[in-house]
Specification:
about 290 residues, alpha/beta, 8-stranded parallel beta barrel, binds 2-acetamido-2-deoxy-beta-D-glucopyranose
């Protein structure tokens, strides 16, 4: 065979074998999950969501909660600056995740949403503030893991954040809705069409998660999502172990690889999202499935 044909064939084989999907992970809610730097150095992930900014909006002073990793009120989370920069130097994008399953957050008006956007820009993104909780590191974007509130004014927040993109580097917007469509908290925000990546939580939601050997409810919900929301790409959000999702949705690696991924790996597929780094370390889930993602 002529050598000038060999290279294109090799590249084709690589592309066909890799599926070109990525893994996103949540880090921050368990002090025993290892450092952020080690998480990125594992080479498993393309996106890390720092979880969570648990208090914001409605005039409240925002509060970052990174469990046992550091204490924002004592200023010790600024030590994460070098970890964040080390992640970014390896091509891993780092986002701040807003919300979570428990927290004190809501937006009370358009002004409130715009104030929160300005706060996020000044304290975590490309702006400046004397009290940046994570220090000088500039995060790549904001993740909306909104599981409380009625969702009012989160569309305004998305619009206000996206406007900072035009001032320089892109501010990525990502979201983690629950799999029943439409999401109870994020629908108006998602309908802006401004989100880059949408990692849908296919767990703790009986009507759309994998269960009892059936992928039908999952694939049906997946198809509804990708045809109803405009975003760059969609990720299958999964628990890294059965313990990570008390109300179900865990997919054993062999089932994910042989049944679920082949059913969803179409043009809008971006990869998988894993809750969380802590359970991923314990169960070695991402490492086991990575070559098929
Ligand atoms: C699929 O969802 C329906 C409710 O929408 C539920 O009745 C059914 O049990 C689910 N299937 C599985 C296999 O869990
Ligand atoms: C995790 O899975 C990878 C890929 O299968 C394997 O190479 C590695 O040894 C596993 N690690 C542990 C701790 O089991």
């Amino acid at each position: 065979m002529a050598t000038n044909l060999l290279l294109p064939l090799l590249l084709l084989a690589l592309v066909a074998g890799s599926h070109a999907g990525s893994i996103a992970v949540y880090w921050g809610q368990n002090g025993n999950e290892g450092t952020l730097a080690d998480t990125c150095a594992s080479g498993l992930y393309s996106y890390v969501n720092l979880a969570f900014l648990t208090t914001f909006g409605n005039g409240q002073t925002p509060v970052l909660n990174l469990a046992g990793h550091c204490d924002p009120s004592a200023g010790t989370c600024t030590s994460l600056t070098s970890d964040i920069q080390s992640c970014q130097s390896q091509g891993v994008k780092v986002f701040l995740s807003l919300g979570g399953a428990s927290g004190s957050y809501s937006l009370s008006s358009t002004d409130d949403a715009q104030n929160v956007a300005q706060y996020l820009w000044d304290n975590f993104l490309g702006g400046s503030s004397s009290s940046r909780p994570l220090g000088a590191a500039v995060l790549d974007g904001i993740d909306f893991d909104i599981e409380a509130t009625n969702g009012d004014f989160f569309d305004t927040l998305a619009q206000a954040l996206s406007q900072f993109s035009s001032q320089g580097n892109k501010v990525y917007l990502t979201a983690a809705p629950q799999c029943p469509y439409p999401d109870a908290h994020l629908n108006t925000a998602l309908q802006t069409g401004l989100f880059d990546y949408v990692w849908i939580q296919f767990y703790n939601n009986a009507q759309c998660q994998y269960s009892s050997g059936s992928i039908d409810n999952l694939t049906s919900a997946w198809n509804t999502w990708i045809s109803s929301v405009t975003a760059t790409s969609f990720f299958l959000g999964l628990p890294a172990s059965p313990d990570a999702a008390p109300s179900g949705g865990y997919i054993p690696p062999d089932v994910l690889i042989s049944q679920v991924l082949p059913a969803i790996q179409g043009p809008k597929y971006g990869g998988i999202m894993i809750w969380s780094r802590y359970y991923d370390v314990l169960n070695n889930y991402s490492a086991t499935v990575k070559n098929s993602v």
